[in-house]
Amino acid sequence: MLPNPGELNAIIDRALAEDSAGADVTTSALIPSRLEARATLVAHEPGVLAGLLVTAAVFQRVNPDLSFVQTAVEGDRIERDGFVGTVSGSMASILTAERTALNFLQRMSGIATLTRKYVNAVEGKDAVITDTRKTAPGLRLLDKLAVATGGGRNHRMSLADGVLIKDNHLAALQSEGVTLAIAIKRAKTRTTHTVKVEVEVESVSAAVEAACAGADIVMLDNMPPSEMRKAVKRIAEGCTVEASGGITLENVVEIAESGVDIISVGELTHSPHALDISLDFELKNA
């Protein structure tokens, strides 16, 4: 799921342009071009590392002569004050790249850390943890890569990856007299056999109706675990059951014990806590 070099460079270039990396007036005014430095990335809280490839690429985009060396591995759990890696070369270039590189690394590591907490919480259960499309605009590839690094799985990457019939779709179809069963049939006949059809429901009866109408996946939206358990028992085998909405670390175990196959967690990417990582400099020559 790694982005290809072109995609990754496009993401990084947008971030650098947003930061006006080519017009760093502070560094230009204060830092002589002859100065070289070595800087160490240090984690100030424990967590799971993600985004080292992106971090290295940021430094390379600013100055191809910068050298980035990892001292930790993607997906590793790092402890407080643990060393992540070092970058060496032009001090001016490192300073210009610093904030953008840290923004990617901190966000991705925060996502991976939170994902690992959810994955560990349901360890031993049959349910798997997935993300959603609630990602930062323009950063979906990296957000979902961070989820995978943390041990989670990826839900749809985009609207093209599967049919997901939600309440607003059904509300829009009501004016035509289209029932849930008709909507599912329509979706199946108007897409290829390789495309799965998922339906979001809010009650046990709707879940059973969707499964009986041929839905490949039934999403139980914001349902209490007790109702999820009832839905799972009544849905025939062969239909995947997903829990979504209102998932927290406090209730995820109970939800996993309801028998659902998938637990999709929007929190993983819509509000992660960025891992506290800084760049500490050591001047190489005066």
Characterise the protein shown here.
With about 290 residues, the chain is an alpha/beta fold. The chain has two domains: about 130 residues, Alpha-Beta Complex (Aldehyde Oxidoreductase, domain 3); about 150 residues, Alpha-Beta Barrel (TIM Barrel), CATH 3.20.20. It contains eleven helices and twelve strands. A six-stranded parallel beta sheet has the order 6-11-10-9-8-7. A four-stranded antiparallel beta sheet has the order 3-5-1-12, covered by helices on one side. Strands 2-4 form a two-stranded antiparallel sheet. Strand 10, helix 10 and strand 11 form a beta-alpha-beta unit. Helix 1 crosses helix 3, helix 3 packs antiparallel against helix 4 and helix 8 packs parallel to helix 9. The longest helix is centred in the middle third of the chain and has 31 residues. The radius of gyration is 23 Å and the shape is elongated. The two termini are about 45 Å apart.
